[in-house]
Each structure stands twice: as structure tokens, then as C-alpha cells.
């Protein structure tokens, strides 16, 4: 038994020896265990503990906090996009092949800091679900929602630990653009029902998210067919997330909007038959 433990310990240290030394001392970056613990605690709270604590309580009124939170996330996402443009995508980075610059020069360090900031925002986004819990909106805590939020900090941790720059950062850059739009929508929706007339584009927001995952997958998997000094394991790691989330969001889109269309068609047919029957008497 001790030999097996020793084997896995040695393998773990071998893997970690390839990590980026620049991020080693940053909070939460020494080991994946704190991130795993936080993610599992999140799942436990939103699926078990939170609903149990709220079972005999009235829903909290947190509209002001939700408005503040959503527009805070718009600001965070905007900072990530701005830094991505400034230090990478408008600064000569290639969409075809961009190796990681592990130097301590100013621009590579800013890219690494931006990657780390993106990682931290994945924890802040747990508040999406916490608001559902304390408002007793348990029906909105779907499997898709929990998987998406629960897995992201763990997934991004590996990217920041080993490849905080280069080709890997397109994922976070594109995701931050989507989140700018998404949290703007949620912020406006939180203001009140009178904003609904301006929020007709929710369906297109889900489609926008699905397009994002196609682009992430295509951007990553191209390196399977192109020579590039970027680790192939992270090509597969990032690309597989694009595929996974595309299928999850596609299923959600079909269930939500296809069913809504069927319900609308059925309602229209029912109203037509009712009108027709009343007018032939």
C-alpha cells in the first residue's frame, strides 16, 4: 500500500515540477486541494445545506445586492477583456499559435496576472447560485448550472498553474466578452419587471454562449494539426471543455426554447379554436 502511495506522490511531484514558478507563491496556487475543497463546498451548499437552511424561512429580498453584484461582474469582465486586448490580442498575439512566455518581463507578467484574476472571478461567480438559494429559486439550480460553476475554478486552476498565457488565454478572453453581455442582462433583469420589455434578447444570449464554445473548441483543437510550442495536454483540456459545455448548453437551449415554441403554438391553436367555435354558433 505504501508503494502505491509513494508512486502517486512521486507522479504528483513530477507533474508539479513542470508548473510555472512565477505563480507558485500566489494565493491558492501552491496546490489544487484548496480549490477542490472550495468547489466541493459550493456544490454541497447549493444542493444540500443551503436549501435545507432555507426550508422553513421566507425568501430573502436581495434585489439591491443582485444589481450591485451583476454590474460588479460586468466591470470585472470588462477589465479582463481590456487587459486581454492591451497585452495580447492587440499586441501581436496570434490566434493560430501563441506559445507561453514564462519570462518575468512586464507584458508576460501582466498576462499571467490577468489569467489569475480570471481564475479568482470564477469563485465570485458562485454568488449566482447563492442568490438562487437564499431567494428559494431551487428550480433554477439546474445540473447544467451547478456543473458549469462548480467545475470552472478547478479547470482554470490548471491553466494558471502551468500555462498562464499564450494560446490558453483565448478561452478566458472570449468567455469574459460573453460575461460582459450576460451580466449586463442579469443586472437589468434584477432592476425589476418593468425592464422586461428591453430583455427580449435572452434567447440570443444562450446562442451566443454556444457559439463561444464552438470557437473555443476550434481555437484549441487546431493545434492538433499545427506545429506549435504549446502543451498538447492543454489543447485537449481546453478543447474538451468547449465540447462538454456546448452539449450541456445545447440541451438546455432545446429544452427551454423548443418547449416554449411548442407551448406557444399550442396556446395559439387553442385560442384559434375557441374563437372559431364561438363565432360559428
UniProtKB/TrEMBL annotation:
Reaction equation(s) it catalyzes: a very-long-chain acyl-CoA + malonyl-CoA + H(+) = a very-long-chain 3-oxoacyl-CoA + CO2 + CoA
Highest taxon of source: Eukaryota
Assigned EC number: 2.3.1.199
Lipid metabolism recorded as keyword: yes
GO molecular function, one term: fatty acid elongase activity
InterPro entries: ELO_fam
Pfam families: ELO
Subcellular location: Membrane
Transmembrane segments: 31-50, 62-85, 116-134, 146-164, 170-192, 204-221, 233-253
Gene Ontology CC, one term: endoplasmic reticulum membrane
Family (UniProt): Belongs to the ELO family.
PANTHER family recorded: ELONGATION OF VERY LONG CHAIN FATTY ACIDS PROTEIN 7 (PTHR11157:SF69), FATTY ACID ACYL TRANSFERASE-RELATED (PTHR11157)
Protein name as catalogued: Elongation of very long chain fatty acids protein
Organism of derivation: Tetranychus urticae (Two-spotted spider mite)
Highest classification ranks of the organism: Eukaryota, Metazoa, Ecdysozoa, Arthropoda, Chelicerata
